[in-house]
What we know:
Elements: E1 2-3, E2 16-21, E3 34-39, H1 64-79, H2 82-87, H3 89-98, H4 104-112, H5 115-126, H6 128-147, H7 155-162, H8 166-175, H9 178-187
Parallel strand pairs: 1-3
Antiparallel strand pairs: 2-3
Amino acid sequence: MVSINIDFPPAPVAHVQFVKVNCKSTSALIMDSIVVALPIASFIKKPPVDAGGDPSYKELVCTEEDQNNIAYIIQTMADNGKLSLLFKKSELNGIGARINHVHPFKFLGTVFSNENLKACMREIYKDYFKWNGFMDGLGPSLTIQADQGKLGQYLNDFAKETGVTSQELLGYIQSKDWESMVRYLMTH
Length: 188
């Protein structure tokens, strides 16, 4: 067994993780195993933040899995009737809980940058029950972010992602008229 000590800059945490790596080489020198000490912090990925402490719009978390979950919720709401949705309520609430960390602009950006999901939103809008359920979930999240000043800083990038101008959305944000904003996004 060969031990290799690799010097890393001091980690922000005091713990060290030991990783054993087995490898074989086709060259004349064959190593049975190597033990390398790596700081745990080297595996933790935090999104970079700007000087103000908030991530940029691009850095807001919305993974591919989050996007798939958003698409599933929107498509399920559009494709199913009220009774079917009542039977799926627990499942949809569970999926909703898994995307709760997604910023509402990232959520809406996922929906309104996809023509299929945009069409699904038009179907949801046609049904009072579905539309109110959707807005009851989205509205408070937008209001919280607006009250914390977390919408204006992302407005230009969100508008670009959804294919509208920030000026077209600014009035909705200032008046916190989320329903009209979503209806506007559906038609543009």
